[in-house]
Structures are given as structure tokens and as C-alpha cells.
Amino acid sequence: MEFDNKYPIYRQLFEMLLSDIINGKLKPGDKFISIREASSKYNLNPNTVTNAFKELELHKIAVTKRGLGTFVTEDTEVLNNLTKKHSEKIVDDFLSKMYSLGYKKDEIISIIHERGEKNE
């Protein structure tokens, strides 16, 4: 993975791990790779990886068990909220772009219906 230096690297790693959870690559109760492994895999300073894991814990997405490692939470409410927030962000970004192109609400809805029928 390549990181963008304009944006905090720990935050990019945090978002990548979130994406892995939302997309099902990491499931509830799965163990994250260790800080040392992640540092090596992504060629990052261990402190950067630690900050990403702390961010996951802060949002109650990860649970660290002393001596065992860090795991994806098994709290379905937390995970459902994570997925909901992610999907809302996607929709908000989409709508913002469509409005900036000059589309009106009804036109956007029409486009979504058309594309949805083609993709079913």
C-alpha cells in the first residue's frame, strides 16, 4: 500500500483496516496482525501502527487482550454503526459530486433507478 504524505499515515492505516472490516476481510473476533508484523508489512514506524490501533480502540472497533493481541470487536451494534456511517459517507460524497455537476434531486434519483435496473 502506498501512503499519501499529505494525510497522516496512521489515519490512512486506520481507514484501511476499517475498510477490511466493512468489506468482510476481517470478521468479528478476528485477530489483527501484530504491530511488529504491520510495521514490517507496510514499512511503517511501529509508533505509527500503534496510533492506528489506538484509534481503532478509541472507536471501540478493536479490543486488545493483554498477551494475546488486538481483535476486531464482536459488538454487532458497533460494527453495524460503522457500516452505516461508511455507507452514508459514500452517499454524501456521491450527492455532493452530482450537485456540483448541476444535477437536481429528481434527476439524480432517475439516474440511480436507471443504473440500478441495469445492474440487477
From TrEMBL:
<dbReference type="GO" id="GO:0003677">
    <property type="term" value="F:DNA binding"/>
</dbReference>
<protein>
    <submittedName>
        <fullName>GntR family transcriptional regulator</fullName>
    </submittedName>
</protein>
<dbReference type="Pfam" id="PF00392">
    <property type="entry name" value="GntR"/>
</dbReference>
<feature type="domain" description="HTH gntR-type">
    <location>
        <begin position="7"/>
        <end position="75"/>
    </location>
</feature>
<keyword id="KW-0804">Transcription</keyword>
<dbReference type="GO" id="GO:0003700">
    <property type="term" value="F:DNA-binding transcription factor activity"/>
</dbReference>
<dbReference type="InterPro" id="IPR000524">
    <property type="entry name" value="Tscrpt_reg_HTH_GntR"/>
</dbReference>
<keyword id="KW-0238">DNA-binding</keyword>
<keyword id="KW-0805">Transcription regulation</keyword>
<dbReference type="InterPro" id="IPR036390">
    <property type="entry name" value="WH_DNA-bd_sf"/>
</dbReference>
<dbReference type="InterPro" id="IPR036388">
    <property type="entry name" value="WH-like_DNA-bd_sf"/>
</dbReference>
